[in-house]
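Per-record layout

source: Circinella minor
name: Fungal lipase-type domain-containing protein
length: 323
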Amino acid sequence: MIKNRGSIFINTSYLILLLLCSLVVNGALDITHKTNGPPHVATEQETRDLKYYMTLASNSYCDNVIPLRQWDCPNCGKTSDMEIVQVFVTPKYDINAMVVRDDNLKRIVSVFRGSKTEKNFKADGEAAPVNYEDIPGALVHKGFYESYKEVATDIVSVVQKQIQQYPDYTLATTGHSLGAAIATLHGLDLHRQNFKVAVYSYAQPRLGNRGFALYAVDSGLPYHRITSRKDLYVDCPIYLLGILSYVHAGEEAWIQENDEILICPNGLESDDCYNSDNGLRSNDDHYRYFDLENNKECLYQGTMYLGYGICSLNQILELSFLD
């Protein structure tokens, strides 16, 4: 719940955070380094895969899918022949997730829903950095990390059983926004346990510091991070206190305004993709990911104020908008 003393700042907070998030794009913070080669336009197979995993991430927003385990939603005709193996709903952060099996393409996919409820936004707002596992110098967003920890044991157990039962199937994880951040942590967790897994992360906010990002880049995990046009939330959060900044990692697939997809190879966030498009960011572009807009009725219908959500003004200005 937003406290009364915080609400009077909310419109100003929005404008301040638009400016702060744009500092990274305009070069005020140097968080990029060279990737492993030049960008290329996505191939037909790459585009098919990107659309496939986005459909699953999109469908996870619909209540008939999670928790009811029914393919009943505007996009569900594309996934109706898949098996929803199990769904998960956690008490503290209301993380909604599912494990899906596609017997036609022989794929097992862990899917995490993005922000939709007050508990989700609380997780988004807890942006203080905490230690990531036993990796020296690696720090991650507290809310994202604790959200994954709340569901980790149960969902990994189901994935393990599915892989044991279907050893010739491929394994992937996906999600949009908050779900993308959790899917990335899930993918790294599975990778550390020697699962062969790929991550498809859509509209993901920054997840950790440079130490964490470099760990992800060098881990060997196939990490596909998809961005769209001028999506505001891809540019958040950044930490402006001291010298600590959150940094993106992975192979970036940037959906441009003409719908062409440019892929920047694995590395820290590149100046050749999303960061190449300077200027104010767009809240609407957060939902312009392939067929996500078809599930508009399932998405959060309110205003995602930055001070209450991913950009976490309470961390930047040391205000407390959350109980």
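summary: The chain has one domain: 4-316. The helical segments are 4-7, 10-25, 44-59, 118-125, 142-165, 178-192, 210-218, 313-316.
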